[in-house]
Each structure stands twice: as C-alpha cells, then as structure tokens.
Amino acid sequence: MLSPFASLRVNSAKHLALLLLGGKIQSEILRCAQNDSEEHRSVTPKVINLFATLEHHYKWRSFSLMTRFVTDYLGQGQQELSQLLNELQEELQVLHLARNLESTAARLRGLAKKIRLVLHTHIEQQEQILYPALEGHMQGIAATLERMRRENEAGEDAEKAFFQCAEQWAKSGKNRQEVIKRGRNYVQWVRGHLLKENGRLFPLVARGLDPETQQKVCRAMEELTTDN
Fold first, then answer.
1. Which of 27, 107, 159, 173 is most buried, with most CB under 10 Å away?
2. Over the stretch 14-35, which tens digit does the pLDDT of each residue have?
3. Helix-helix angle 176-196:69-93, to 10 degrees
4. Are 69 and 214 in contact (CB under 8 A)?
C-alpha cells in the first residue's frame, strides 16, 4: 500500500502527463486548422458562367427556329388542309345514307372547293417561289423537283375526276358509290402529297436555304397569296 506522499507523486505525474498530452493535441488541432486555412486561401474557386450557357442555348434555339421558318409557314397550310380533308372524309362515309340530295351535294361541293383553293395556293407557292429558290441554292435537285411537279399534275387529275363525278351525282342522284370512291382517292392523294412534303421537300429546305433566304421566300409566298 502506497503512502500518502507516494500517491500524491503518482497522481501528480499522471496529471502532468495529461496536461502534456492535452497540449500536444491542442497544438495539432491548431496546426491542422492553420493548414486548412492556407489551403483554402490558395485555391481559386471555379466560377460557372450560367449566363454564357443560357446565351448559347437561346442562340441555338433562335437559329433552329429561323431555319424552320419556311416549313412552319407551309405547315399552316398543311394543318388547314388536314382539317378540311377530315371533314370531307366524314361526308363521304355517310354519303350512302343521305336522303336530301340537294343539301348533301351543297355540303360536298363546298368542302371540295375549299380544299381545292387551299391546295392550289399551297402548290403554287411551292412551284413558283420555293422550287426556284432551292434550284438557285442547291445542285443536283432538278430531277427531284421535276418529279414533284409531275406528281402535282397527277393530283390535279384525281381532283378533276372527283369534281366531275360529284357534279354528275348532284344533277342525277346516280353513281353515289363512284362519288365515294373518287372522293376517297382524292383525299388519299392529298394526304400522300403532304407526307411527301414532310419527308422530301422540307429536308431540302432545311439543308439548302439559310435563314435570310427563307425569310425572303416566305415574304414572296405571302405576296403571291395576296395577289391571288
């Protein structure tokens, strides 16, 4: 058993050791904090310019919208034609049930004339304005455009056959099934024409005409529509 003095010496030694250890720990903490502060001052924070990223995005978006300007303009005519074709198709589906020849023929004739007006304006804008612009800015597309012109002539034949048949039926009330058949052929041709525009003509516009040229083409097409 230790004496009181021996116990006091042991406790004092332990206390001194704890103080020394605590001092080392405190010094180490201060050193680490100083190093962290120096490292923080030496590292330059990376600045992200969000406005530059947004500016690039909107420049690209604006350019994309401008390059589609002609297709957007012609797309308005496509939407109008599609709606009229839907109405005509509905009339043809119930034509065999019609009892009032005069009123049914008037509705059919009115829809057909609206489609012809919009379609002919649509095609004239392309053949008189857009096709020459494409030929002036692209090489090797003359055969493609000529084929599209011949397809338009075939559409005029389908339109003429439908109109003549519908007029004969309006006068005599006969050959109703023939009217339905020729009317469906006409609707099918117009829809096929619109699909070919999307798949063949519009990609040519996107590749061959710069934004400034497209704006000029659109103005010319608008003027043509106004003159007509």
1. 159
2. 444 444 444 554 555 455 545 5
3. 160
4. yes
- The CA distance from 99 to 94, in Å, is 10
Structure tokens at 87: 């109405």
Cβ pair 127, 152 in contact under 8 A? yes
162-169: list long-range contacts, CB under 8 Å, 24+ apart: 162/112, 162/186, 163/112, 163/116, 166/105, 166/108, 166/109, 166/112, 167/109, 169/105
**HSE-CB of 168 using CA atoms within 13 angstroms:** 14
Measured CA to CA in angstroms, residue 38 lies from 32, 35, 46, 105, 127 at distances of 10, 5, 17, 91, 73
107-138 pLDDT, tens digit per residue, is 999 999 999 999 999 999 999 999 999 999 99
CATH number of 67-227: 1.20.120.520
Place of tokens 């003027």: 223
Report d(CA 213, CA 209) in Å as an integer: 6
Per-residue model confidence (pLDDT) at position 184: 96
pLDDT digits (tens, 9 = 90+) for 174-208: 899 999 999 999 999 999 999 999 999 999 999 99
Backbone torsions φ then ψ of 13, nearest 5 degrees: -65, -40
Domain boundaries, the chain: 67-227
